[in-house]
Hints:
The chain is an alpha/beta fold. 41% of the residues lie in helices and 13% in strands.
Amino acid sequence: MSFDLVTFGCSWMKGVGVGYESGMKKEEYKKLRNNGEICEKYSFRGILSEKWGCNNINYACMGSSNMRQFRNAMEHFKCKPEKKTVVLWGITSIFRHEVWVNKIGRDDKPKGYRNVLYGHAPHEGAFKMHKVNVNEHLEHHFDEENEIKVLCNQMDHWNLFFESIGVENYWFDTFNHHNYPYVNSRMLFTHKRKRDLLSILVDDYRDDTYHASQFSSDDSVRISDALKLKLVNPYSSHPTKETHVKIAELIDEEINLINNIR
């Protein structure tokens, strides 16, 4: 029987940049970077949906924070699904946030939630517009250990919720291995020393810096390795079409392994 695959996550889950072709000019790439049709077809969620014969309901988007995805999940699961539902959820960087903005700056831009990536200027507009200093915010209102603890609590809550309504769910770390106080039973790749997709793809389990999406020399060495291995495109460091195929295979094999063990 057909089922719904509900996906949450950031640009990796959405498939941003999957339309990149070798030798493509930057301007060409920018025109199709976030093309919905291309993302639906070639992203690993799209590949899995076709393989599993299911309907994909996607909430992942470029620059998304974990906070945004938890909000999306609350808005989606207001009642028990009428058909079989599987949730695939990618945890992204904790150095992301979302804020509600009443006025964006242009009359044609509606009020609403806006993504904020700490340390990444183009996404700080919502903070800068209201004269919120990002560095001061991080100093006074952000603690890495607490953010990880909040993530654990959230995942535990959703595990219980999904179990209570008969939804099958799976989590994975996208491009950072988070040192959770404990790893929940619905997490993928727990047998790996570093369970995030980026570390698995580059086969690198060294103690590396956190990939905070800053595109600077302070960011993760693993993303630089991925560039050298041509696993991600050279313009925005998003996984290529071929890499999405690899990710789909990894997730499919892992879920099959888990279900066979159980």
